[in-house]
Design goal:
The chain is α+β, with helices and mostly antiparallel strands and 321 residues long. The protein has 2 domains: 146 residues, no CATH class; 128 residues, no CATH class. The chain has 10 helices and 10 strands.
């Protein structure tokens, strides 16, 4: 014990005697900015992102840079790895416009400073999962984005000018939905308990058994069943192909088999929250009006819209425009 006190006293004395205890360590940035190849204007925009949000937006990088958190593995039928390819630096300006248009403009500067803009943003031409089955057959599955730790990879640099408005909207919603889960995991957006208050997640909704034109029986939602479901505050998940009973939160397949009774309450609530977010972000005004005519739906819908406007300054409805 005396030895420990003596060492502590020496350290304290040395520090206070002003003796040199070593030069300060130099802290290096992870990447050097600006990178080379893009226009001066694009590079300045990238520097501005770093200055504002402490985020690196990169267009010249290795696959190892982008995937360093990812782990590759061997499936039973072959190995998998994720591959990125670089885009033409001449397209960086357009790519920056693209991420502003589908992502950044919807979030406040304060939110982006708190981590809403990920630490690393890789601008790639393509991104795909490559799987080697070991028999000479290599499958490549493309994707538009990947969230990898605190990094985001966004693909499409060389085709960005060719995307239609519909394609951009689809990519935007795909990205925002993934980012929303990331933001929830980071505590940047919450999962408010008030949303679930007053909703019965225990009693199964009612479906009706009907015989169709070809003497084929099935469980369906009649108009009366749907009215009751909406009056309880339940809406379907968004479906780009139109309404489907399989998008509802409860589905009956037989007298004894349902998708509700086999799911715990926490999972049912999670689905309910997801279905509302999907509809709020994607439904047209006409589609939304059909839901909002039900008071129970309007209460939950308006709560989520108002809640995220007030807490993080995000207009969920604007995302679908």
């Amino acid at each position: 014990m005396m030895g420990i006190l003596a060492v502590s006293a020496c350290l304290f004395s040395c520090a206070n005697d002003g003796e040199d205890i070593g030069s300060p360590l130099e802290i290096y940035k992870d990447y050097d900015l600006p990178q080379s190849g893009a226009s001066d204007a694009a590079n300045q925009r990238i520097l501005n992102y770093y200055d504002k949000y402490d985020s690196f937006v990169l267009y010249d990088f290795t696959n190892k840079d982008a995937m360093w958190v990812m782990s590759t593995g061997n499936a039973s039928s072959g190995g998998r790895e994720y591959i990125t390819t670089l885009g033409d630096p001449a397209n960086v300006d357009a790519m920056l416009d693209y991420i502003e248009d589908i992502w950044l403009k919807y979030f406040s500067e304060d939110f982006l400073k708190k981590g809403g803009m990920l630490y690393r943003v890789f601008l790639a031409d393509s991104l795909y999962m490559q799987r080697d089955f070991g028999d000479g057959n290599i499958m490549k599955t493309p994707t538009n984005y990947m969230i990898n730790g605190d990094a985001l990879i966004i693909a499409g640099m060389n085709v960005i000018s060719e995307l239609t408005d519909a394609e951009k909207k689809a990519r935007k919603l795909e990205l925002i939905n993934a980012l929303w889960n990331y933001y929830k995991g980071k505590g940047l957006v919450d999962n408010p308990e008030e949303f679930y208050a007053g909703t019965d997640y225990i009693t199964p909704p009612h479906m009706s058994y009907e015989i169709g034109d070809y003497s084929y029986g099935e469980w369906v939602y009649t108009d009366e069943d749907l009215e009751a479901l909406r009056n309880r505050g339940f809406i379907p998940d968004y479906n780009t192909y139109g309404y489907s009973k399989y998008s509802e939160i409860f589905m009956q397949y037989s007298e004894t088999t349902t998708s509700w009774s086999n799911t715990n309450e926490a999972a049912i609530k999670a689905n309910d929250y997801k279905y509302y977010l999907d509809q709020i972000m994607q439904a047209t005004d006409e589609e939304a009006a059909e839901f909002l005519k039900y008071p129970a739906v309007a209460t939950k819908w308006n709560f989520l819209v108002d809640h995220y406007k007030e807490t993080v300054g995000i207009d969920l409805r604007a995302l679908g425009k």
